[in-house]
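Agenda item 2: magnesium ion complex prediction
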Amino acid sequence: MANLDTYVRLIEAGEIVAFPTETVYGLGADAWNPSAIQKVFEVKGRPSDNPLIVHVSSEEQIHDFAEKIPPIAHTLIEKFWPGPLSLVMKKKADVLDAVTAGLQTVAIRMPNHPTALDFISKTGPLVAPSANKSGRPSPTKAEHVHSDFGAGFPVIDGEATEIGLESTVIDLSEPFPAILRPGSISRKHIEEALGMEVYESFFHHLKNPRSPGQKYSHYKPAAEVRWLTDTDNLQNSSTLFLLMDSDSEASNVVSYRNDLNQLAKELYDRYRQADHEGYESIVIEPFETIDPPIKSALLNRIEKTLK
Ligand code: AMP
Ligand code: MG
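Presented output:
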């Protein structure tokens, strides 16, 4: 891997660079450079009405992007930053339209990852959507980025990402805060921090979602994803089974021992594996009886992939 300064210079030259965060790999571009941001949309094939999250390395930087920072934003920042929580707030007038897709709000987060923080502290704030082609699973390893964008694509190589699912997005621009995308920071975590009720607004049927990203079907592998039923047979070698508790040692069966954090961490990699190895389906064992904070986000991502 080239050293970090090489990648910093690429960003300064208006290029785009993928880097690891604690959630998934991000595709970084200078948040103040319109042509660099244009490249992000082109390379990803991202619809132009789907806004980007600005990634910062210090709390002060939010003042360059957010016009009104409500007191609850400070409470959440204090409690959860750096971390997987993106805050949507009223934007400053000069924030680029390409960043917000023309909305009057901007999403901002500070990633909890030493490489990401080091990188951003040298480049300044970066927009950083997930570093995958639109419609592919978010990348949780550097090799996923290379498989979507080519072996020569600049990626700051880190480990597999810790959480494996994208950040929680919460809208603070309206009087009542609403979670627009569930993540590993759960509704309960947020309600406890704020001492108030917080709404959830991330259901498929919303006609005019508050988060444009909700309109698009993400994360669809070629293999059919469905829940385990009584009639499933582990001998079916064209199916990849992701089970909660199984002693099978077959190569098409993975047991998570009820550890939903581990399933979240590996989910997108399993989707890619299934496609790569030509599985026809991915069958996941329902996990009604377990309730860790990641559960809502995990269900949300799996439900998006069911056919
Ligand atoms: P990604 O970075 O690929 O995980 O996608 C970012 C997500 O944040 C998408 O679902 C966007 O629609 C959402 N998002 C970004 N900015 C805003 C905003 N200003 N208002 C609402 N949702 C946003
Ligand atoms: Mg994405």
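Discussion summary: The chain is about 30% helix and 15% strand.
Owner for follow-up: CH.
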